[in-house]
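ok here's Putative VPS74-protein, seq below lol
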Amino acid sequence: MSASGTGGLQRRRVPGSSAAPSTSWAAGAVADLDEDTPPRSHTSTPVHQENGGESRSSWDVGSSSRTRRRDGDLGNPNSPGIASFSRSGGGGQSITVTDDRGRRVAYDPRDLNDDKETNEHPHLTLMEEILLLGLKDRAGYLSFWNDNISYALRGCILLELVLRKRIAVTKDPSRRRFAVQDRILEVIGSKMTGEVLLDEALKVMKACDEPMSCSQWVDLLSGETWNWMKIGFQMKQVRERLAKGLVDKGILRTEKRNFLLFDMATHPVADTATKDAVLKRILVLLTSSSSSVHANIFYREEKADVTFRVTRALCLLCCAFAANVLENALTHLTYEARETAFQKADDIMNEFSQWPMAPQTPGGGIGAAPTAASASGARMNGTGIGEGSVLTDTYEEASMGVGVTELARAIRNDYSKADESQYEAIAGLLATLAKMDSLI
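and the structure came out like this:
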Protein backbone atom coordinates (compact mmCIF):
# COMPACT_ATOMS: atom_id res chain seq x y z
CA MET A 1 0.00 0.00 0.00
CA SER A 2 1.41 3.32 -0.96
CA ALA A 3 1.66 6.19 1.46
CA SER A 4 -1.08 8.79 1.35
CA GLY A 5 -0.58 12.42 0.49
CA THR A 6 -0.38 13.48 4.12
CA GLY A 7 3.38 13.19 4.27
CA GLY A 8 3.93 9.41 4.29
CA LEU A 9 3.28 9.00 7.99
CA GLN A 10 1.16 5.84 7.62
CA ARG A 11 3.01 2.57 8.28
CA ARG A 12 1.94 -1.09 8.05
CA ARG A 13 3.69 -4.35 8.86
CA VAL A 14 4.83 -5.98 5.63
CA PRO A 15 4.92 -9.82 5.67
CA GLY A 16 8.45 -11.15 5.64
CA SER A 17 9.96 -7.74 6.10
CA SER A 18 12.94 -7.59 8.49
CA ALA A 19 13.14 -3.83 8.65
CA ALA A 20 11.73 -2.34 11.85
CA PRO A 21 10.22 1.14 12.03
CA SER A 22 12.85 3.70 12.84
CA THR A 23 10.75 5.87 15.13
CA SER A 24 9.62 4.88 18.60
CA TRP A 25 6.09 6.13 18.18
CA ALA A 26 5.66 4.12 15.03
CA ALA A 27 6.85 0.97 16.77
CA GLY A 28 4.32 1.39 19.55
CA ALA A 29 1.47 2.24 17.23
CA VAL A 30 2.04 -0.58 14.73
CA ALA A 31 2.83 -3.33 17.25
CA ASP A 32 -0.83 -4.35 17.64
CA LEU A 33 -1.74 -4.31 13.95
CA ASP A 34 -2.55 -7.61 12.23
CA GLU A 35 -1.85 -8.35 8.61
CA ASP A 36 -5.55 -8.39 7.74
CA THR A 37 -6.32 -5.29 9.82
CA PRO A 38 -6.78 -2.17 7.72
CA PRO A 39 -4.22 0.51 8.50
CA ARG A 40 -5.09 3.36 10.87
CA SER A 41 -4.03 6.89 10.29
CA HIS A 42 -1.47 8.18 12.82
CA THR A 43 -1.87 11.78 11.86
CA SER A 44 -3.41 14.27 14.27
CA THR A 45 -7.02 13.62 13.29
CA PRO A 46 -9.48 14.98 15.82
CA VAL A 47 -12.44 12.82 16.77
CA HIS A 48 -15.34 14.78 18.23
CA GLN A 49 -17.41 13.18 20.97
CA GLU A 50 -20.50 14.28 22.81
CA ASN A 51 -20.41 13.69 26.56
CA GLY A 52 -23.29 15.04 28.59
CA GLY A 53 -23.85 17.88 26.16
CA GLU A 54 -20.21 18.95 26.37
CA SER A 55 -18.27 19.07 23.15
CA ARG A 56 -14.82 17.49 23.40
CA SER A 57 -12.06 16.92 20.98
CA SER A 58 -9.75 13.91 21.55
CA TRP A 59 -6.81 12.99 19.40
CA ASP A 60 -6.10 9.68 17.66
CA VAL A 61 -3.81 7.11 19.26
CA GLY A 62 -0.91 7.99 17.04
CA SER A 63 -0.72 11.57 18.20
CA SER A 64 2.42 12.23 20.21
CA SER A 65 0.73 15.03 22.16
CA ARG A 66 -2.25 13.95 24.23
CA THR A 67 -3.84 17.38 24.40
CA ARG A 68 -7.51 18.09 24.94
CA ARG A 69 -9.22 21.41 24.51
CA ARG A 70 -12.55 22.09 26.18
CA ASP A 71 -14.57 24.89 24.74
CA GLY A 72 -17.56 25.47 22.60
CA ASP A 73 -15.40 27.02 19.87
CA LEU A 74 -12.82 24.34 19.08
CA GLY A 75 -11.89 25.74 15.76
CA ASN A 76 -10.34 28.92 17.11
CA PRO A 77 -7.38 28.17 19.41
CA ASN A 78 -7.02 31.84 20.30
CA SER A 79 -10.54 32.31 21.57
CA PRO A 80 -10.81 33.37 25.24
CA GLY A 81 -11.56 30.66 27.74
CA ILE A 82 -9.82 27.82 25.93
CA ALA A 83 -7.86 25.60 28.25
CA SER A 84 -5.53 22.87 27.07
CA PHE A 85 -4.52 20.13 29.47
CA SER A 86 -1.21 18.38 28.95
CA ARG A 87 0.47 15.70 31.01
CA SER A 88 4.15 15.08 31.18
CA GLY A 89 5.79 11.74 31.67
CA GLY A 90 6.27 12.44 35.36
CA GLY A 91 2.52 12.73 35.97
CA GLY A 92 2.51 16.53 36.25
CA GLN A 93 -0.36 18.50 34.80
CA SER A 94 -0.39 21.98 33.39
CA ILE A 95 -3.21 24.13 32.07
CA THR A 96 -2.87 26.72 29.34
CA VAL A 97 -5.53 29.40 29.07
CA THR A 98 -5.97 32.33 26.74
CA ASP A 99 -6.91 35.64 28.29
CA ASP A 100 -9.04 38.39 26.78
CA ARG A 101 -6.01 39.93 25.08
CA GLY A 102 -5.13 36.72 23.27
CA ARG A 103 -2.13 35.91 25.44
CA ARG A 104 -1.59 32.28 26.40
CA VAL A 105 -0.85 31.69 30.08
CA ALA A 106 0.26 28.34 31.50
CA TYR A 107 -0.03 27.42 35.17
CA ASP A 108 -0.06 24.40 37.43
CA PRO A 109 -3.48 23.93 39.08
CA ARG A 110 -1.74 22.60 42.19
CA ASP A 111 -0.33 26.09 42.75
CA LEU A 112 -3.85 27.39 43.33
CA ASN A 113 -4.46 25.01 46.23
CA ASP A 114 -2.99 27.44 48.75
CA ASP A 115 -5.99 27.83 51.04
CA LYS A 116 -4.06 26.26 53.89
CA GLU A 117 -1.11 28.57 53.28
CA THR A 118 -3.39 31.62 53.29
CA ASN A 119 -5.45 30.64 56.33
CA GLU A 120 -2.53 29.80 58.62
CA HIS A 121 -0.37 32.88 58.13
CA PRO A 122 -1.01 36.62 58.60
CA HIS A 123 -1.35 39.15 55.83
CA LEU A 124 2.07 40.66 56.56
CA THR A 125 5.29 38.71 56.87
CA LEU A 126 7.67 39.16 59.77
CA MET A 127 10.15 41.24 57.76
CA GLU A 128 7.36 43.50 56.46
CA GLU A 129 6.26 44.19 60.03
CA ILE A 130 9.83 45.10 61.04
CA LEU A 131 10.18 47.44 58.07
CA LEU A 132 6.83 49.01 58.90
CA LEU A 133 8.01 49.67 62.45
CA GLY A 134 11.18 51.33 61.21
CA LEU A 135 9.49 53.66 58.72
CA LYS A 136 8.53 57.16 59.75
CA ASP A 137 4.78 57.52 59.24
CA ARG A 138 4.81 60.79 57.29
CA ALA A 139 8.37 60.96 56.00
CA GLY A 140 8.27 57.41 54.66
CA TYR A 141 11.93 56.42 55.02
CA LEU A 142 14.15 54.60 57.48
CA SER A 143 16.70 56.24 59.72
CA PHE A 144 19.99 56.85 57.95
CA TRP A 145 21.90 55.85 61.09
CA ASN A 146 20.33 52.42 61.49
CA ASP A 147 22.98 49.85 60.53
CA ASN A 148 21.23 46.91 62.18
CA ILE A 149 18.05 46.61 60.18
CA SER A 150 19.60 45.13 57.03
CA TYR A 151 21.15 42.24 58.94
CA ALA A 152 18.02 41.74 61.03
CA LEU A 153 15.78 41.57 57.96
CA ARG A 154 17.74 38.56 56.67
CA GLY A 155 17.17 36.88 60.00
CA CYS A 156 13.46 37.70 59.71
CA ILE A 157 13.34 35.97 56.32
CA LEU A 158 14.73 32.77 57.83
CA LEU A 159 12.42 33.02 60.84
CA GLU A 160 9.42 33.39 58.54
CA LEU A 161 10.49 30.28 56.64
CA VAL A 162 10.71 28.40 59.93
CA LEU A 163 7.23 29.55 60.98
CA ARG A 164 5.91 28.40 57.60
CA LYS A 165 7.51 24.97 58.09
CA ARG A 166 9.95 25.29 55.21
CA ILE A 167 13.25 25.00 57.09
CA ALA A 168 14.36 23.53 60.41
CA VAL A 169 17.44 22.31 62.22
CA THR A 170 18.81 19.01 60.94
CA LYS A 171 17.82 16.12 63.19
CA ASP A 172 21.33 14.91 63.87
CA PRO A 173 21.96 13.32 67.30
CA SER A 174 25.38 14.98 67.43
CA ARG A 175 23.93 18.49 67.07
CA ARG A 176 23.65 18.81 70.86
CA ARG A 177 27.41 19.30 71.05
CA PHE A 178 27.18 22.62 69.22
CA ALA A 179 25.76 25.94 70.25
CA VAL A 180 22.20 26.46 69.06
CA GLN A 181 23.25 29.14 66.52
CA ASP A 182 25.84 26.73 65.06
CA ARG A 183 23.40 23.94 64.29
CA ILE A 184 22.75 23.08 60.65
CA LEU A 185 19.62 24.28 58.86
CA GLU A 186 17.92 22.16 56.22
CA VAL A 187 14.96 22.55 53.87
CA ILE A 188 12.00 20.43 54.98
CA GLY A 189 9.36 21.82 52.61
CA SER A 190 9.97 22.88 49.02
CA LYS A 191 6.53 24.34 48.25
CA MET A 192 6.67 27.98 47.26
CA THR A 193 5.12 30.47 49.66
CA GLY A 194 3.95 33.12 47.20
CA GLU A 195 6.20 35.75 48.79
CA VAL A 196 9.03 36.74 46.45
CA LEU A 197 11.75 37.16 49.07
CA LEU A 198 10.83 33.96 50.89
CA ASP A 199 10.81 31.95 47.69
CA GLU A 200 14.14 33.43 46.62
CA ALA A 201 15.76 32.50 49.93
CA LEU A 202 14.23 29.03 49.79
CA LYS A 203 15.64 28.42 46.32
CA VAL A 204 19.08 29.55 47.44
CA MET A 205 19.01 27.17 50.39
CA LYS A 206 17.84 24.27 48.24
CA ALA A 207 20.58 24.89 45.67
CA CYS A 208 23.34 24.92 48.29
CA ASP A 209 24.97 21.52 48.73
CA GLU A 210 27.18 22.52 51.65
CA PRO A 211 25.56 22.35 55.11
CA MET A 212 25.23 25.77 56.75
CA SER A 213 24.33 26.77 60.28
CA CYS A 214 21.83 29.40 61.43
CA SER A 215 24.47 32.10 61.85
CA GLN A 216 26.15 31.21 58.55
CA TRP A 217 22.93 31.55 56.59
CA VAL A 218 22.19 34.97 58.06
CA ASP A 219 25.73 36.04 57.17
CA LEU A 220 25.49 34.70 53.61
CA LEU A 221 22.11 36.30 52.90
CA SER A 222 23.51 39.58 54.25
CA GLY A 223 26.69 39.36 52.17
CA GLU A 224 28.86 39.13 55.30
CA THR A 225 31.42 36.69 53.91
CA TRP A 226 34.99 36.73 52.65
CA ASN A 227 34.37 33.79 50.32
CA TRP A 228 33.87 35.32 46.89
CA MET A 229 32.36 32.06 45.62
CA LYS A 230 29.42 32.52 48.01
CA ILE A 231 28.85 36.21 47.45
CA GLY A 232 26.02 35.27 45.08
CA PHE A 233 23.96 34.11 48.05
CA GLN A 234 23.46 37.71 49.14
CA MET A 235 19.90 39.00 48.85
CA LYS A 236 20.03 42.52 47.47
CA GLN A 237 17.67 45.48 47.77
CA VAL A 238 15.61 43.77 50.46
CA ARG A 239 14.30 47.01 51.99
CA GLU A 240 13.25 48.45 48.64
CA ARG A 241 11.52 45.25 47.60
CA LEU A 242 9.71 44.99 50.91
CA ALA A 243 8.53 48.58 50.61
CA LYS A 244 7.19 47.94 47.10
CA GLY A 245 5.41 44.85 48.37
CA LEU A 246 3.74 46.90 51.10
CA VAL A 247 2.69 49.42 48.47
CA ASP A 248 1.07 46.60 46.49
CA LYS A 249 -0.76 45.46 49.63
CA GLY A 250 -2.08 48.99 50.23
CA ILE A 251 -0.16 49.58 53.46
CA LEU A 252 2.22 52.21 52.06
CA ARG A 253 2.11 54.73 49.24
CA THR A 254 4.91 56.05 47.05
CA GLU A 255 6.05 59.67 46.99
CA LYS A 256 9.14 61.59 45.95
CA ARG A 257 11.08 63.82 48.29
CA ASN A 258 13.95 66.12 47.47
CA PHE A 259 17.08 65.62 49.55
CA LEU A 260 19.43 68.48 48.70
CA LEU A 261 20.69 67.57 45.21
CA PHE A 262 18.70 64.45 44.40
CA ASP A 263 15.20 63.02 44.56
CA MET A 264 14.45 59.87 46.51
CA ALA A 265 11.37 57.68 46.55
CA THR A 266 9.71 57.53 49.96
CA HIS A 267 6.90 55.35 51.24
CA PRO A 268 4.67 57.06 53.83
CA VAL A 269 2.17 54.94 55.73
CA ALA A 270 -1.23 54.83 54.05
CA ASP A 271 -2.96 52.28 56.29
CA THR A 272 -2.31 53.39 59.85
CA ALA A 273 -4.61 50.72 61.29
CA THR A 274 -2.28 47.97 60.14
CA LYS A 275 0.74 49.60 61.74
CA ASP A 276 -1.22 50.22 64.95
CA ALA A 277 -1.99 46.49 65.11
CA VAL A 278 1.73 45.69 64.83
CA LEU A 279 2.54 48.21 67.57
CA LYS A 280 -0.16 46.76 69.80
CA ARG A 281 1.41 43.29 69.70
CA ILE A 282 4.70 44.71 70.99
CA LEU A 283 3.06 46.87 73.65
CA VAL A 284 1.08 43.91 74.97
CA LEU A 285 4.33 42.06 75.66
CA LEU A 286 6.20 45.03 77.14
CA THR A 287 3.67 47.33 78.82
CA SER A 288 0.63 45.19 79.57
CA SER A 289 -0.81 45.51 83.06
CA SER A 290 -1.38 41.76 83.21
CA SER A 291 1.37 39.18 83.35
CA SER A 292 -0.72 36.45 81.71
CA VAL A 293 -0.56 35.73 77.99
CA HIS A 294 -3.52 34.65 75.86
CA ALA A 295 -3.01 33.66 72.24
CA ASN A 296 -6.27 35.25 71.10
CA ILE A 297 -5.08 38.76 71.93
CA PHE A 298 -2.60 38.60 69.05
CA TYR A 299 -3.58 38.98 65.39
CA ARG A 300 -7.19 39.75 66.15
CA GLU A 301 -7.42 41.86 63.01
CA GLU A 302 -6.56 38.89 60.79
CA LYS A 303 -9.34 37.03 59.03
CA ALA A 304 -7.22 33.89 58.92
CA ASP A 305 -6.75 31.53 61.83
CA VAL A 306 -3.08 32.34 62.33
CA THR A 307 -0.98 29.55 63.80
CA PHE A 308 1.84 30.05 66.33
CA ARG A 309 0.45 33.43 67.39
CA VAL A 310 2.46 33.82 70.58
CA THR A 311 5.63 32.57 68.89
CA ARG A 312 5.16 35.09 66.09
CA ALA A 313 4.68 37.90 68.59
CA LEU A 314 7.86 36.82 70.40
CA CYS A 315 9.83 36.79 67.13
CA LEU A 316 8.44 40.22 66.25
CA LEU A 317 9.56 41.67 69.59
CA CYS A 318 13.04 40.14 69.44
CA CYS A 319 13.60 41.15 65.81
CA ALA A 320 12.41 44.70 66.49
CA PHE A 321 14.84 44.89 69.41
CA ALA A 322 17.70 43.54 67.26
CA ALA A 323 16.86 45.80 64.30
CA ASN A 324 16.91 48.88 66.53
CA VAL A 325 13.35 49.87 65.60
CA LEU A 326 11.76 49.11 68.97
CA GLU A 327 12.12 52.73 70.07
CA ASN A 328 9.58 53.79 67.45
CA ALA A 329 6.93 51.76 69.28
CA LEU A 330 7.72 53.29 72.68
CA THR A 331 7.84 57.01 71.87
CA HIS A 332 4.68 57.73 73.88
CA LEU A 333 6.21 56.38 77.11
CA THR A 334 8.16 58.35 79.67
CA TYR A 335 11.92 58.01 79.82
CA GLU A 336 11.84 55.66 82.83
CA ALA A 337 9.10 53.49 81.33
CA ARG A 338 10.92 53.36 78.01
CA GLU A 339 14.17 52.23 79.64
CA THR A 340 12.29 49.61 81.64
CA ALA A 341 10.61 48.33 78.47
CA PHE A 342 13.99 48.08 76.73
CA GLN A 343 15.37 46.07 79.64
CA LYS A 344 12.32 43.83 79.54
CA ALA A 345 12.88 43.19 75.83
CA ASP A 346 16.54 42.43 76.50
CA ASP A 347 15.61 39.92 79.20
CA ILE A 348 13.09 38.19 76.92
CA MET A 349 15.65 38.08 74.12
CA ASN A 350 18.23 36.44 76.36
CA GLU A 351 15.77 33.88 77.74
CA PHE A 352 14.45 32.69 74.37
CA SER A 353 17.69 32.82 72.36
CA GLN A 354 19.03 29.66 74.00
CA TRP A 355 18.12 26.00 73.95
CA PRO A 356 16.11 24.95 75.82
CA MET A 357 14.23 28.23 75.77
CA ALA A 358 13.66 29.91 79.14
CA PRO A 359 15.31 27.10 81.12
CA GLN A 360 14.55 28.74 84.48
CA THR A 361 10.79 28.49 84.06
CA PRO A 362 8.70 25.66 85.56
CA GLY A 363 8.88 22.56 83.41
CA GLY A 364 12.55 23.02 82.57
CA GLY A 365 11.98 25.36 79.66
CA ILE A 366 10.77 24.83 76.10
CA GLY A 367 12.44 21.86 74.46
CA ALA A 368 13.55 20.18 77.68
CA ALA A 369 12.00 17.18 79.37
CA PRO A 370 10.33 18.06 82.68
CA THR A 371 12.30 17.14 85.77
CA ALA A 372 11.34 16.85 89.42
CA ALA A 373 13.40 19.89 90.34
CA SER A 374 11.96 22.07 87.58
CA ALA A 375 8.41 20.91 88.19
CA SER A 376 8.65 21.83 91.86
CA GLY A 377 9.87 25.30 90.98
CA ALA A 378 13.47 24.83 92.17
CA ARG A 379 15.96 27.25 90.69
CA MET A 380 18.67 25.93 88.42
CA ASN A 381 22.28 27.00 88.59
CA GLY A 382 23.07 30.19 86.76
CA THR A 383 21.53 33.60 86.35
CA GLY A 384 17.83 33.73 87.08
CA ILE A 385 15.16 35.46 85.06
CA GLY A 386 15.54 39.20 85.34
CA GLU A 387 18.63 39.09 87.54
CA GLY A 388 20.93 41.96 86.78
CA SER A 389 18.11 43.97 85.23
CA VAL A 390 16.07 46.88 86.54
CA LEU A 391 13.34 44.54 87.72
CA THR A 392 13.47 44.53 91.52
CA ASP A 393 10.70 42.16 92.53
CA THR A 394 7.93 39.94 91.21
CA TYR A 395 5.28 42.64 91.45
CA GLU A 396 7.31 45.05 89.36
CA GLU A 397 7.94 42.38 86.73
CA ALA A 398 4.24 41.62 86.47
CA SER A 399 3.18 45.26 86.40
CA MET A 400 5.24 46.23 83.34
CA GLY A 401 4.36 43.51 80.88
CA VAL A 402 3.91 39.80 80.49
CA GLY A 403 5.95 37.55 82.73
CA VAL A 404 8.60 35.31 81.23
CA THR A 405 7.03 32.31 82.95
CA GLU A 406 3.60 33.04 81.47
CA LEU A 407 5.13 33.75 78.08
CA ALA A 408 6.99 30.44 78.14
CA ARG A 409 3.78 28.63 79.09
CA ALA A 410 1.92 30.15 76.13
CA ILE A 411 4.75 29.37 73.72
CA ARG A 412 4.81 25.80 75.02
CA ASN A 413 1.27 25.43 73.66
CA ASP A 414 2.53 26.44 70.22
CA TYR A 415 5.50 24.12 70.64
CA SER A 416 3.17 21.15 71.12
CA LYS A 417 1.79 21.71 67.60
CA ALA A 418 5.19 21.91 65.90
CA ASP A 419 8.40 19.95 65.66
CA GLU A 420 11.30 20.36 68.06
CA SER A 421 13.69 21.11 65.19
CA GLN A 422 11.64 24.17 64.21
CA TYR A 423 11.93 25.76 67.64
CA GLU A 424 15.62 24.92 67.72
CA ALA A 425 15.95 26.92 64.51
CA ILE A 426 14.03 29.83 66.06
CA ALA A 427 16.32 29.81 69.09
CA GLY A 428 19.41 29.63 66.86
CA LEU A 429 18.31 32.56 64.71
CA LEU A 430 17.39 34.66 67.75
CA ALA A 431 20.80 33.86 69.24
CA THR A 432 22.43 35.06 66.02
CA LEU A 433 20.51 38.34 66.13
CA ALA A 434 21.25 38.77 69.85
CA LYS A 435 24.99 38.78 69.10
CA MET A 436 24.63 41.13 66.16
CA ASP A 437 26.30 44.08 67.89
CA SER A 438 29.54 42.11 68.18
CA LEU A 439 29.34 41.05 64.53
CA ILE A 440 28.78 44.45 62.92
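fwiw The chain has two domains: 46-111, 117-439. kinda neat tbh
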